[in-house]
Amino acid sequence: MFDINKILRSNIKNLTPYSSARDEFKGEASVYLDANENAYGSPLDTNYNRYPDPLQYAVKKRLSEIKGVPPRNIFLGNGSDEAIDILYRSFCNPGVDNVIIVPPTYGMYEVSANINDIELRRVPLTADYQLDLEAIAAHIDDKTKLIWICSPNNPTGNSMHREDIETLLANFSGLVIVDEAYINFSRQKSFIQELTEYANLVVLQTLSKAWGLAGLRVGMAFASEEIIEVMNKVKPPYNINEASQALALAALQNVDQINTWIKEILTERDKLVLQLKNLDFVLDIYPSDANFILVKTTDANGIYNYLVQNGIIVRNRNKVELCEGALRITIGTPEENAKLIETLKDYK
């Protein structure tokens, strides 16, 4: 049975969070003289002289309507990377605890573990890029606090078998974090629907991919109320700035536009796969539930450098475990994809 108090760091249990001026006062006032702001405004068309809502309630309320999750189960971070870091700082004791990652996977799980001095246990995916449950079980001990699972996975593009993730959730006493940065492009159901079933589940999503807001840096974590309370306790007081909150809220009114773009991206993905298969140096293209494809080639380094010389940037994954010889290619506009194919046709 999952018990948050058994995995929460003792210093975090006893932490008195920073209390901002906006935490201490709720509602509206006519005069604000509490936070040492510049009362004259900002040298911009829009005033940003007041501190933003520290808990981003308006954005969470709109997300709640879209996702079907109460605002109290939503955490907003400066990108998903902030949520990743806060989970380490909340639940993992430096130099004592360990976490499990399943490479190839998103690189920030490892970077953040190293920054926080947390032992990283690597359990590679199987040959078909699925979870190796027996190997994961063999690496778990009483100091294992987190298991990181990216699904759809970056850089391979595939979704993990749902029943395998459920097996971990049901049998692991720490947190299972399911990173769904690319879930909008997948036919798989989000694990958000399972929050009431598993107290140890954390789901990460982002506005950087399908929502086209990478420059705003707004990431989301969905979890039980007690986990979200811990994350809010640890985060900086104003971690999402006012401009990002306002722009994110405006973007979240345009669900139909996003759904149209998703359909177009998936159509372009299928077209690009067919065109790449006709190139002699393409050995394999792995199935994708994301807005990118992993392409195994005869010479990843050579092709990558050739594309750079022609002003086209893809991601060289040749040195990544189980991705030798592979390039990760994001699906672009029809014009960008056409330029990529025409350029590759001339590669020798």
UniProtKB/TrEMBL annotation:
The modification N6-(pyridoxal phosphate)lysine is found at residue 209. Its EC number is 2.6.1.9. Pathway: Lipid metabolism; Amino-acid biosynthesis; L-histidine biosynthesis; L-histidine from 5-phospho-alpha-D-ribose 1-diphosphate: step 7/9. GO terms for molecular function: histidinol-phosphate transaminase activity. SUPFAM superfamilies: PLP-dependent transferases (SSF53383). Keywords: Amino-acid biosynthesis, Aminotransferase, Histidine biosynthesis, Pyridoxal phosphate, Transferase. Residues 46-344 form the Aminotransferase class I/classII large domain. InterPro entries: Aminotrans_II_pyridoxalP_BS, Aminotransferase_I/II_large, HisP_aminotrans, PyrdxlP-dep_Trfase, PyrdxlP-dep_Trfase_major, PyrdxlP-dep_Trfase_small. This is Histidinol-phosphate aminotransferase. It comes from Mucilaginibacter boryungensis. The lineage of its organism: Bacteria, Pseudomonadati, Bacteroidota, Sphingobacteriia, Sphingobacteriales.
